[in-house]
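Dear colleague,

Thank you for sharing your sequence with our group. We've completed the structure prediction you requested, and as agreed, I am returning the results in plain text so they can be pasted directly into your records. Please verify that the sequence below matches your submission; if there's any discrepancy, let me know and we will rerun it promptly.
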Amino acid sequence: MAVYAAIGKEVLLTSLILSDFHGNEACFRRVLALQKHLDYIFFLGDGYAAAERVASEESASPFVGVRGNCDIFSCEALDEMTLDLDGVRIFLHHGHTTSVKQGLSGACAAALRHEADVCLFGHTHTPYLSYEQREGRKPFYLFNPGTIASGQFGIMEIRRGEILLSHGRL
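Please find the predicted structure tokens below.
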């Protein structure tokens, strides 16, 4: 179920994107305090259980996440998922399953396989944004918010199927 914010006659869907929590509750709480309206909190793994707990304490926004390589033995979350929001297909994964530390070809292949408009990943702790176009294939965004453990996060806004991705830092 999506919650929408009306801006004039247009509808805006705003999501906070976080990855690699690694126990830094203070940064996560500060970012949540800055975000007054969120339709979703997307978490991309590593510290899933603690991130889910903090999100439930600090925000009424739905928490949607996947587990990372540090979560494999500590939670039952999925390794990846695909969501459709306001006409935009979003593929979420941590990045260890597509070997993003060795390059982005695996993440690109997964995005194409899932017919994603946006491929979200973490794992590298490095903010990243690119618009990928492949001949004869649907273009898509690759986005890494960086690590919330260092105060890095991402924001995704969707309005009438159009996507705006941005990075933030405390």
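Summary note from our side: The first strand starts at residue 5 and ends at 7.

Kind regards,
the structure core
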